Protein 1
Amino acid sequence: MALRALRLESLLDSPQAYGSTYGECLEWTSRRWRQVAREWNYFLAERAVRGVGIASGGPNDRYPGTRWLYGMYVTPKERGTGVAEVLVDAVQEWARQQGSTSLYLHVAAPMQRARAFYEREGFRATGDVVAMERDPSILLTTMVKSLA
């Protein structure tokens, strides 16, 4: 249920950053959340047994041999404390273990703080910009980091 709480919090805090909405995820049953926790590749950061951040990694069909970082969120009180770096490191390590050579992500145009963080972490814009599926008015910049 920590995943559920953080995911819903993230969708309220920064709705323009994610491909799903608070309303959609709020309707998920407990069974659906347990399924997501089992089947999706989420990493959970905790402090004093309380969830403070999440990130996920997944396959990248567009670029074989690479992976995606997505669903990244750190609760506001923990921003700037190193939690985000730990989450990115966890997804990078997972991607390396999968044999990936690069890690990609999308960052929404309104999320300038997130983009600056990713740049500090070594991600670079690829030049690709795509419209978000659920809201084509939100543009997503594709970024990549070499894992070599």
Note: The beta strands are 42-47, 50-59, 67-74, 102-108, 124-131, 139-146.
Protein 2
Amino acid sequence: MNPNDGFGELLAIENNLRRYNADIVKKMARHFQGRRAILEFGAGIGTLAIEWQKQTKVKPECLEIDPKRQQIIEERGFTCYASLGAVKRKYDGIYSSNVLEHIEDDRGVLQELRSSMADGGVLALYVPAFRQLYSALDRSLGHCRRYQRAELIEKTSSAGFQVIDCYYADSLGVLAWFAATWSAANLRRYDQWIYPLSRTLDELFLRRVAGKNLLLIAKK
């Protein structure tokens, strides 16, 4: 499954990774309490924006560079911008999931995100972890990199943010990344059976050790 082929895989992720998507939002949103001006950077077709509004009762604005995806997001009732340059306000929270790894100049984007935030604003980044896991699947998904924890902290700090926390997520996903094929049935099985156990192990002790992803929380 290649996300460059169209929207079928994005819909498959939305429809078959419901627990996974809800948990990503839960992990990020708990750091945004009381914040109303929220932007999702790289919103895809609005999957997480819908979940964010459901969980927090706050409707985020979205940024998405693909015109067809912008249209879907707007049809779903969200304001959507094509670039940070088009945004005319300062946000007190910006979140992004599985986006930064697609961008060659990630340092430049982090600086742009900071410029789009009010003082004291919160940034949440969810990205693929471990350079050693980089594979043909990453290349097919358009990933420029996977992140080492120290690398992500350094790049975010260098952009002017104060890093509050950075930890691993989806510990069992490290094994599933190599074993799974991206069919709707396999996504659903992972979401129903493997991810709940992975989430429990994360919370018990593994989030400080290893995981398929990293979650970073920072403030301006």
Note: Residues 3-219 form a domain with the Rossmann fold fold (CATH 3.40.50.150).
Protein 3
Amino acid sequence: MSTRGVVAVTGAGRGIGAGIALELARRGFDVACLVRGSAPEAPAGSTGRLLTMSCDIRDPAAVAAALAAADALPGGLVGVVNNAGIQIEGPARDFPLESFEAMLATNVIGTFSVARQSYPYLRARGGGLIVNIGSMWEKMGARRYAAYCASKAAVSALGRCLAAEWARDGIRVLTVAPGYVDTPMTRAALEDERVRAFLKSRVPMGRAASIDEVARLVASLFSEDIAILTGETLYIDGGHGIGQ
């Protein structure tokens, strides 16, 4: 079975990461699922395209081993999706510094570690694509989410800087920034009438995005391979960030 190359996806065991991994597999990519648990079940037609690799992105040695294994697969490493992340909320006035550090260690330093360690593999093949999963909340003032919003703003800033620095190596870097997304973890909250009313009043499209919508956007960036597109943050939030 031919391949379009290997894309490493962090946090591919559930939610948005699993959806992205499955959509990439459907489009003919082999997917190295870098997970702390188990990888998503392969859909019909993608058998063998999802390969599980145990990796905690906070551990540079684990990242190095996983990316080396991914690049050794047929087609080699052609891209990375930095999806793994955590979210901790709480009032800023007494938010534990340890929790803030944990958020940065995963969402920012982990993302940078994976991107930096993928660089030599992508450069050796003449280029590739790195997609970092940010958040629409990077540009919002949200109570109780100072650490999370700050970390996702850093992800976008990181993407712009890497895009500028690595463009001449043929490596493009983009950030995809969802707003509310309907996942198994958020479904109960999204079904609350108060939240539904909020979405209808504040989000022009009136609803959360689906995992499939986010996954198709990310996968299309790989399958279309638009060489001039780099350094941008692409918001997929139903217009929330521009709504009144």
Note: The chain has seven helices and nine strands.
Protein 4
Amino acid sequence: MASHRRLGKRSVWLVIAIAITGALMTLGLLNHLLSSGDLDPSLAEDRVRAGGLVGGTILQWVLFSVLYSLGISNVRRPLHHKRFMVASAIQMMPTGLTRLLGLAGLHGPAVLLVMLGLYSSILVYDWRSDRRCHWSTLVSLGLFLTLPLCFFTLFASQW
């Protein structure tokens, strides 16, 4: 338990490093796409693509931060702490999953389906172990569902 606490305290620095380097990588990618001509701001399709990239990344970090913060704030309630921390880890998977599934020839909704499957496993675990779904699991699932909702609505438009 002492080791878990020590690593948990150190994870705050890891989260900060991930946020900073992730922001730099996203801005670097956007700058590269603009400077190489792969992204033309005068084209509506490219503006939507850029908005989806930046908006999706920011939303993913916000959701991760909220879930991680909920995990930290529930550290004295292990049942909820565990669920929020697992959910925060799942929330950071889209980028890696996109690359991994892309190698297998699966694109688009496949990432969301895998993530939904992972969240579903938490729901199943709740039901099998306690015969109910815990509020922390439902909050985590609800926060996750804002990501595909935004991708198929807000980030699919020029707005």
Note: Helices lie at 2-36, 44-73, 78-91, 94-103, 109-130, 135-152.
